Amino acid sequence: MGGPQRLAERAGSARAREVIYTGERCAAATLERWNVVNRVLPGEGFAEAARECARR
């Protein structure tokens, strides 16, 4: 469904290949640094932070 292509566009082809070939999980902060995700919300108070993000 295009996930690997989008990952390569955002994180670069070398990182995308590593993630896809190894199947290793990446920390949310790492994915944020690689521009794969826009924002990492804290675990504590997550629901309220997510609602505030959705309100904006």
β-strand amount = under 5%
Sheet with the most strands? none
Rg over CA atoms, rounded to whole Å, is 13 Å
The multimeric state of the shown protein is single chain
Walk me through the topology.
Blueprint: H1 3-11, H2 13-22, H3 28-33, H4 46-55
Helix pairs in contact: 1-2
What tags apply to this protein structure?
elongated, 62% helix, 56 residues, 4 helices, mainly alpha
Short description:
Helix content is about 60%, strand content about 0%. It is an all-alpha fold and about 55 residues long. Helix 1 packs across helix 2.
Explain the overall architecture:
By secondary structure, this protein is mainly α. It has one domain (3-55). The chain has four helices and no strands. The protein has helices spanning 3-11, 13-22, 28-33, 46-55. α1 (3-11) crosses α2 (13-22). The chain is elongated, with a radius of gyration of 13 Å.
